[in-house]
Amino acid sequence: MGIKKNEKIGERCALQDILGVIGGKWSMSIIYALFSGKKRFSELERLVPNINTRMLVKELKNMEANGIVTREVFATVPPTVEYTLTTKGEKLEPIINELYKWGLAYVN
């Protein structure tokens, strides 16, 4: 009985860790926007409805720190910054697509 309880606690901790990486209010929308390829910061602002610049920066930094996106800065004036999903981030595509389908069927 104790083993099952400990396993469930471990599962909950793992889920909390996962949500810490991709569970931000805007994270999945940003990741979804990057499925089609590299995007500049301004493109992401346009593609993610209702996100403000501060939140986009925060979410991108979190995802970069967790290995979901890479950030590439080009020495232009003004600087150009592009974001791309890492291999780890690309692995989220089928999962997020399934969540999207579930949402269409059951949310609202």
Quick summary:
This protein is an alpha+beta fold and 108 residues long. It contains 6 helices and 3 strands.
What topology does this entry show?
Elements: H1 2-22, H2 27-34, E1 39-40, H3 41-47, H4 53-65, E2 69-74, E3 80-85, H5 87-90, H6 93-106
Antiparallel strand pairs: 1-3, 2-3
Structure description:
This protein has a 3-stranded antiparallel beta sheet with strand order 1-3-2. The protein has a single domain (about 1-105), classed as Arc Repressor Mutant, subunit A. It has helices spanning about 1-20, 25-35, 40-45, 55-65, 85-90, 95-105, and strands spanning about 40, 70-75, 80-85. It contains 6 helices and 3 strands; from the N terminus they run H-H-E-H-H-E-E-H-H. It is globular, with a radius of gyration of 16 Å. By secondary structure, the chain is α+β, with helices and mostly antiparallel strands. Strand 2 (about 70-75) and strand 3 form a beta hairpin.
Write the element-wise H/E pattern from the N-terminal end onward. Answer: HHEHHEEHH
Number of strands: 3
CATH architecture: Orthogonal Bundle
Count of alpha and pi helical runs: 6
- Which outline best applies? globular
How would you classify the helix and strand content by structural class? alpha+beta
Q: What labels would you give this structure?
A:
108 residues, single chain, alpha+beta, Arc Repressor Mutant, subunit A, 13% strand, 3-stranded antiparallel sheet
